[in-house]
Write a structure and sequence with these properties.
mainly beta, 8-stranded antiparallel beta sheet, two-stranded antiparallel ribbon, 47% strand
Length: 127
Amino acid sequence: MLRACSFIFAILFSGILFSQQKHAVLIARGSEPGWYAEFRKDRLLLVTDYGKDTVTVKHDFSSVFKKKYYHATILLPNSEGGKPPFYTIVVSIKATACIEAGSGEKRERSITLEMDKKILSGCATIR
């Protein structure tokens, strides 16, 4: 229960800071492990591992909500200075109905994120 509460707090705290910028374009979330993402026109906020890790990525996401299928591979520098010097985030969003595992709510898009050898699957909705 403590893990879930701290995850919700991390999402709320990150979302509050992020929401002070521009309106969200697309909100996504999934479970096992719990994760949350907010796509804006020019960046992505990604909270993973029940709030343990947070990543903000600057990238042109303006077409995320315009296409029935969106796919992007984003190359980012490794901030820890290790090898490899870069890592990737692969974003795949499909305009396919999706049922959230945690809540049972129906969303209009399915999403898969691949990052650091982890695959995160979930549902997304356009705001």
